[in-house]
Each structure stands twice: as structure tokens, then as C-alpha cells.
Amino acid sequence: MTVTVTWYLILAAGLFSMGVAGVMIRRNALIMFMSIELMLNSVNLTFVAISRELGLIEGQVAALFVMVIAAAEVTVGLAIIVAIFRKKASANVDELAELKG
Amino acid sequence: MNDYLWLLVALPLIGATVNLFVGRRLGERVSGWFGFTIVAVSFLIALVAGIGFITSGATSESIRLFTWIPSVGADAAILWDPLSVLLTLIVTGVGALIHLYSIGYMHGDERFPRFFAFLNLFIASMLILVLAANYAVMFVGWELVGLSSYLLISFWFTKPSAAAAGKKAFIVNRIGDWGFLVALMIIFATFGTFDFQVIFAETPVMFGVGSATITAITLLLFVGATGKSAQIPLYIWLPDAMEGPTPVSALIHAATMVTAGVFMIARSAVLFDYAPTSAAIVAVVGTATALLAAVIAISQTDIKRVLAYSTISQLGYMVLGVGVGAYSAGLFHLTTHAFFKALLFLGAGSVIHAVGGEQDMRRMGGLRKAMPITFITMGAAWLSISGIIPFSGFWSKDEILAATFERGGWWMGLWLIGILVALLTAFYMTRLFVMTFLGSSRVEEGIRVHESPGTMTFPLIVLAIFSTFMGWLNTPFRLAFEHYLAPSFSALEHPEEAEASTLIVLGAIALAVALVGIAAAWRRYHRDEMPAEEGSFWRSGRAGFHVDDAYGRWIVAPGRAAAAWCASFVDPKVIDGAAHGIADGVRGSGTGLRVMQTGQVRWYASGIAVAGVVLIVVFLAIGGGF
Q1: Taking an 8 Å Cβ-Cβ cutoff, which residues of chain A contact chain B?
Q2: For the segment B500-529, what is each residue's pLDDT rounded down to a tens digit?
Q3: Mind telling me how many Å the CA of A93 is from chain B's nearest CA?
Q4: Would A32 be classed as within a structural domain?
């Protein structure tokens, strides 16, 4: 039984779904943040798998880009979470509903 | 050679500008004499250029000033031909005399410089109109004349009746302008130009006699003429225009404004020549107007209103003349009328001045002794308009009637009505003259009747000389005026000259009829006891046979009702309704959509996820993935 690209895609889809579910269900800002990272990396996995399958370099380049952007995004995101935590002494996003219409 | 002709228009315009902006600082003396001088200089320029033109034997000259609207090929250009020379001389000459008269008449008025600014503007507008070399420029002058008349008629605008009269003149003229404007559109669509010379050269090539296009154009032009020249059905503004100062009435009735319609028809003579139906309608309307106005004039008691209706009536003669195709006769009457009617109005102004502002002839009488100059000059005008030989009105009126008679057939009917109008004219003018100057005085106690100052009597004397001798320019024995004007109407076929014996018989009939009218009025009014004149004819005649009331009921009232309906329904319901509806819709959708904004980050994330899924499904469906 060889491991084909389909397996990778199924794995990536699974990871992505877990990420989506995490963002939608969990209330802790840090956990939601990790779920987003999970989604990003599942997409990276897809890029790399397809890139290898089709013999194209672009997918891998895209994956590198995603990693760089994600690193930058993490710093900003964590800084925001820290700032919120300082203010509210809580990381529960449901308490952050000041923009309710 | 006539490169300086633009000065004719420019000078009065400069006068108007100066008087408008710095007139108050110049003071009454300077501003009045300045306004007069600048028009007098215009007159001298016109005189020099006109004499040069006549002696040179040229037929017409077009002077291009500058390109005005290139896209329609309309240049600001002057057409200098016998017709425009004649009108320019009348406008500036009579206009200058009226300016001079106004210096005395308007003395002490608070807005004296403003008055002269408007007078100058009026002269400039009229000159633009008569000097125009194409219909586009003519229309500019036409509209400016309407504006100036509005400004001057409602000059004493604090008086509600004067403000209303100015408004009425303007609005009624707008109806005529509508006709003129539509005619211009058809002209441009047909000929692709506004230039007179091109249009009149093209007409015989493009159209046959009686063509529908030319008939439509000429009828619409005539609608314009009925507005300016006060013909049925648009004559109603003119009697009300008496609300303006008397020099304004003289200016409007004699030199400017009302002559515009007749001039425009004469200018478009070639077009009317190719539309015999229109020309016949013009003649019939002119005759009907002459008759109606003469009948109304008999019953009026206000001296200025008698003259106003007599102007309408005389304009009817002129319109009849140009309708018959006797253009030079119509213009000859226009010329003589300009002098004797200006004289009549200025004389009436002098009378009104003398009796302390009273305009009702029943409270005048016996002014002969106190104001001899006004009496004698008015006498010349009276005999002239009544058609007594050898005064000018006799020759010009007779020529129109003779030309009508010569056409034969049903035109004879118009001639007969014309003779009847001559009788009525002699009657009401004698009535006016006798009631004002002769008999015993009925002036109110305590008013010292006095002759007017020199600035007012001098124009009267000049005009009286012209009113007396002007007619000799064109008698059946010596047609100087007609030969002079001939180049302007060279494209037309000239009607056959009538036999001398016929002319003498026709003239004798007209003269006899005029004498009968004078005798009848003399017998009736030259006595101490004025007839009561309270019968139903006199009462409805004084009210202008209720034409104004009918217009009020059938046109003005529905118009007002429509405006009221717009104000009470269309504006608040339809226009405001649309604005409010949009605002309400936006506010409602906002209220509905605000529940989406929970402030919960997870809710938004869910939205993105669901939208993503939906998009994927859609793309797959479009791409045929399923």
C-alpha cells in the first residue's frame, strides 16, 4: 500500500476542519490562535504535497511564504492577546463584545 | 468702410453700464445728460453712416464683428441695408428725443440714474435686434428688448400694479418668444444656418410657393410678432404697460419694442412671400386687431390707455400692410407712427405733468390756454393719426389701405374694415383732443396748470415737425421712401402700381371718412356737459371687453390651480416622498441588519467559514465538479 498524494490531502483536510472547528467552538483566545495556525499549516501541507506530485516548485515557494507571514502574524497576534489579557485579566473572547451592533 | 458701426450698439451699452454702476455718484444732471448725449451720438453716427450708405448706392453690406457660436455658424454681424438703416435712425433719433424729454419728466426721481441706465439698455437691445445679420443675434436683441421693457414698465415697482404690469408684459412676451424660438429651430434644421442672406437666397431654390415648412416657420414667427407687436391674441400686455413712466410708454410704443414684430416680418419678407397662407393670416389678424383696439379706445377715459389702444390699432394697420405684401407701406406707417405716437405720448406726459398726475380725461379740459406748445404739437399729432391731408399719417395709412384694395377679391373686405377703423381712429382721437384741450376746464381746484420745461417741449416741437412733414417722403406722386427701401425687398415681386385715379378716389374716401369721424366726435364732446357714457357698451369697452378677465379665468386660473396642486401634492408627496422613502429604506435595513453584529469573534468566524463552504459549492457547481 503506497502512500499517494490523496492521503496527504485527506490529512490536510482533516487538520483544516479541526482548525475551523477550534476557531468556532473554543473561547480561549490562545486556543483559537493555535487553531488558526493549524489551518495555515494544513494548507502548507497541501501546497507541498501537490507541488511534489506535479513536479512544480511554486507550491513549495508558497509554503515558505506562508510560514514567513505566519511568523510575523504570530508576533502581532500574541501582542494583541497579551494587551487584552492585561486589560481584562481573561482570555475569553466572548467577553470581548464591545462592537455589538 | 463702415467699420465703426459697432459703436452704434456699444455706445448705449457703455451708457447703460456707467449709469448703472456710478450713476448715483454722478448725480442727476450729469447722469441724465450723459445718457441723452450717448444716444444722440449714436444717432449722429447712424445719420452719417446712413447718408453715406444711401449716396453710395450700395444695396446691402454685411459687417462681421467676431465669431460668436462657431458650432452653428452664428457670427456677431451687422447687416447694413436700407431696412436696418431706417430702423436704426428711428430708434436712435426718437430714442434720443425721449431721453431728452425724460431729463425733465423724471426730475427728482429717487432712482433717476437707474432709469437712464434702463433707457440706454433698451436702445442698445433694439439696435442689436434691427442690426442683426442673422436670426440668432436678432433673437438676443429680441430677448433683451423683453427684459428692458420689463425693467422699465415696472420701474416704480413699489406700486403693486406696476410690478404686476411688468410681469404681465414679460410673461405674455415669453409666449410669443416661444413661437419665435421654435421657428428658429425649424429654420436651423431646414437651412443649417441662421444667416439672413443665405436663408433668403436658399428659399426660392429649396421650396415652392406654399410649402408646408415655410408656412410653419412663418406662422411661428408671426406668433413671436404678435407678442412684441401686441396683436390678437397677445396684445393684452400693452395697455397695462401704461403703468410705467410716460417716457417709457413713448419709447415702447414709438421707437422700440412694438416695432420689433413688424420689423421681423419685414425682415423675413422672402419667407412670407413663399407662404401666402401665412401672409393672409397675418393680414386678417392685423385687421381684426386694428378694429378691436379702435373700438376699445373709444370708450377709455384714461388718456394713456386711449393712446395704448390706439397704438395696438395702428400696429394692426402695419401688420395688415406687411401681410398684404406692401412692406414699404407697412414700414412707412411704422416710421410716421413712430413720430406722431411718440409725440402723442410725450404730449400726454406733459399734460399729466401739468395737471398734477391726473390721467382721467374727464377731469381735464380747457388746457389750451395754459399750455400752448403742448396744445399745438398735440394738434399736429392728432391730425396726423386721424389721417388728415397733408399730415404724415394720411399718406402712410392710405398707402396700406390702397395696397389692400389693389389685391381685390376678399381682401376688399379687409380694406372696408380698414376704412371703418380709420373712422373710429378719427373719432377717438378727436374725443381725446377735445376732452383734454378744448372746452371749459374740469381740472380739480387748486392745481395750477403750467407749461412743461424746455427739455420736455423741445422734443415735442421736433416730433411735431416730423409728424407733419414726414409723410411727404412717400406720396403717390413721389415714392422716395419706397424706392429707398426697394433693395431690401428686391427678391420679391412688386405688385403692380395702382392707377393714379384709383389712388385719388381711395384717398378721398379715407379723408372723407376721417372728417366724418372728427365731426361726429366734435359735436359730441365739444360742449360743457360731457356725455355720461354709462351704457353697457361703454362699460364693457372700458373693461377691454373683458378679454383680460377671460384670459384670467381660462388660462391664468387653471395655471394657478396647477401650480397650487404641484405645491400641495407633487412637492410634499412625490418629491419629498421619494427622498423620505430612500432614507426610511436605509434606516429600516440598518435596523434589520444590526442583529448580525453580535460582537462575538466566533460568530464572525462562522460566517466566514459558511461563506467559504458556500463559495466552494458554487465554484464546483459552475465548474461541473459534481
Answers
A1: 20, 23-25, 27, 32, 93-94, 96-101
A2: 788 888 888 989 999 999 999 888 888 777
A3: 7
A4: yes
